[in-house]
Amino acid sequence: MKNSVRAFAPATVANVCCGFDVLGFAVDHPGDEVLLTLNDSREVSIAQIIGDGGRLPHEAGKNTAGVAVHSYLQAIGERVGVEIQLFKNLPLGSGMGSSAASGVAALVAINHLMGNRLSRKELVPFAMEAERIACGSAHADNVAPSLMGGFVLIRDYQPLDVVKIDVKLELYCTLVHPHIEVKTSDSRRVLRPTVSLRDAVTQSGNIAGLMLGLTQSDYALIARSLKDVIAEPVRSAFIPGFEAVRSAAVRAGGLGCGISGSGPTLFALSKDADMAQRVAQAMQHEFANHQLKTDVVISKLNPEGAKII
Amino acid sequence: MKNSVRAFAPATVANVCCGFDVLGFAVDHPGDEVLLTLNDSREVSIAQIIGDGGRLPHEAGKNTAGVAVHSYLQAIGERVGVEIQLFKNLPLGSGMGSSAASGVAALVAINHLMGNRLSRKELVPFAMEAERIACGSAHADNVAPSLMGGFVLIRDYQPLDVVKIDVKLELYCTLVHPHIEVKTSDSRRVLRPTVSLRDAVTQSGNIAGLMLGLTQSDYALIARSLKDVIAEPVRSAFIPGFEAVRSAAVRAGGLGCGISGSGPTLFALSKDADMAQRVAQAMQHEFANHQLKTDVVISKLNPEGAKII
């Protein structure tokens, strides 16, 4: 039996405009990596974390990778010792699913070492437990796509109903991370507890349109549907130049553009790599007009999710 | 050139649980028929209406069939005389899209006589104009499926975006019409102007799930998604025994059950004709327990919409 393995889990975009709190997708890169090694300690421990600037807790019970492994081992009834080395490539608090990727990479690694006893979908609840530690709520819209790849719908939580979306067309994602900090707690706080019936219907029409655009391979319908009347109107206030950047992305040919998770990263979707590149330049230029430096990544969508490397 | 034609337009179920105000589908039968005859009068007139119990206006400008034909002829710039005979098979105010079917049948007939100058989708706005006369608002969730067949999403109205859903699996509809009257104005009045953010998210998850269930041919997902947390909780109060009837439909094997349009007709969806029959009996029995007589129809879904007969 192998006692050490390395795994990669990709960044993810949650919400996806009209999919507030129900939708996410995975990109091919960047992502986090873990190296898991079994030992005789019967404990889960974090040996080192590289790339977090010293900001993440090394206590296994407070780290998404540690919590994910611990809850998995408890569920399958194995009491083995596990040492975790975590290689962070995703910026913390950026809206790219950084905490989710660490937990997912660790889960996929431990599941591999235990003979893949659970399916990717069955791993979702353990990754959600880890999210609860990191974010205060057990959301699945980052962990499910990071585990399963592609676009994933979280139809419901009680009981959990996670549906992989059968997308046949090519999509490229542009991720633009402006150098500002938006606290998740602030992003949550500004959401209004009620929405108008009209806005709820508009959101329904758009999420339905997006599902049909994705499954019926209709780029134009995807573009028409990528609108958010619920979270974006209030959350965009945290991102200087948001509307100008969004418009620039669409003018440059992007199918749509919105806030990735609760921000501050913005995502845009494009039909091909060239367009995604033009969209990236337009967004970066517009952020620069608002005195914001940015990091930019262009990636295909990731069809399979986290993997052993 | 032919100067007379007969057309049929099917009944429709709007809303479809989680698809409040954005979704509808057409059944194979029952439906309304029109006989259109061109003449030299240069006016649109209603010659006779059969089956309405004398309740519908014979003035062409107040009848959905008349309004639909008139607005179509104006748009294509033809000033021909048209005599309409209308054969109503759908009960008025039942929630089965009765006014829509009359308008749609008339439109398909006049478009046929004019050489099919417009596509089915292009006819939607004229049928909506007719709905405005009948219902006070230009909704498309009955007229679009009656014109185009199958399941149709109304993603948006400004501008109008009507999307036919590519459904490959078999579906049967049970329509149960209890002998009570629910005024559309009352059904509209009880809707709350705001919904909780939580309910809006739940509705998003369910409409997205229904779209995926339909396009990815997943009966179980369709069943899990056929829930309405927005209109049904308030509108079901108009229908004695609603919850008992809905539960009976699901216990009998139905994929889901809800209010057709704004009621009082209830619809249920089933995988096959036998199941739709058992569902019908269960629903009828439960309504009888609540001292309500019912009419029942079982039909396949109509894939093509209105037709020349």
Could you provide a short overview of the structure?
With 309 residues, chain A is an alpha+beta fold.
Describe this structure as you would to a colleague.
2 copies of one chain form a homodimer. The first copy, chain A, is of the alpha+beta class. Chain A is 37% helix and 27% strand. The first copy, chain A, has 10 helices and 12 strands. Chain A has helices spanning 64-76, 98-113, 120-135, 143-148, 184-189, 197-215, 219-225, 232-235, 242-251, 273-289, and strands at 4-14, 23-39, 44-50, 81-87, 151-157, 160-164, 172-178, 194-196, 256-259, 266-270, 294-300, 307-308. In chain A, the strands form 2 sheets. In chain A, strands 1, 2, 3, 4, 5, 6 and 12 form a 7-stranded mixed sheet that branches. In chain A, strands 9-10-7-11 form a 4-stranded antiparallel sheet. In chain A, α1 packs parallel to α2, α2 (98-113) packs across α3 and α9 (242-251) runs antiparallel to α10. The longest helix of chain A is centred in the middle third of the chain and has 19 residues, at 197-215. The interface between A and B is large, with 41 and 41 residues. β8 of chain A pairs antiparallel with β8 of chain B, so a sheet runs across the interface.
